[in-house]
Amino acid sequence: MKIEVQAFINQIQDQTYLTDEYELPTPDPFVADGILAQLKPAIDKAIEKQALASFSVLTEYAGEPVKVTLETGIVNLPLQYIKKVNQFFELDDQAEVNLYLYVTSPLINRSNMRIDLIGTVASFEESAAANWTKIADLLTKDLEAVVIGSQAPKEEPVEKKAPAKKKAAPKKKAPAKKTTAKKTATQKTTTKKTTTKKKTTKKAD
Question: pTM above 0.85?
């Protein structure tokens, strides 16, 4: 199943695709079976029609929300990020439609989301049993990650320190005026050298 990128964007923005959400109490045991029992009939119907679809189950674990979604798309991003699709394709491109599994929870990992590619919508029915087994295995691992995440010590929120107030720059003092003491000219006393002429007495002849 291929679709023009612009047509895909239009269907998602116009909400003309198959979609529904189901609320489910926390499964006990916390395994994939009960969640997939809600999703399988709707996804099988969408695959049969070769239609775009997004079906979710909302539940919780250890007081935190857990959302499991099976969704068709042309890139591994939930449909809520439809505005980013044109960053990966030209609008007139023909793109393959795939089926993705999304598990969203603050307990699953740091990004709060796990994304798994199941396969193309076009080939899903050819090996439907194997594909549903694959979905169940992946979802089982994701739910185990949620359980492990619930047991991890919670990180204490880091207190944001209030930005230190900038100290006012000290006012520049006006440069002190230099007092230049006038040098009093000291008169040099010049002593005149008195030269005494030697009298030359001529010898008498």
Answer: no
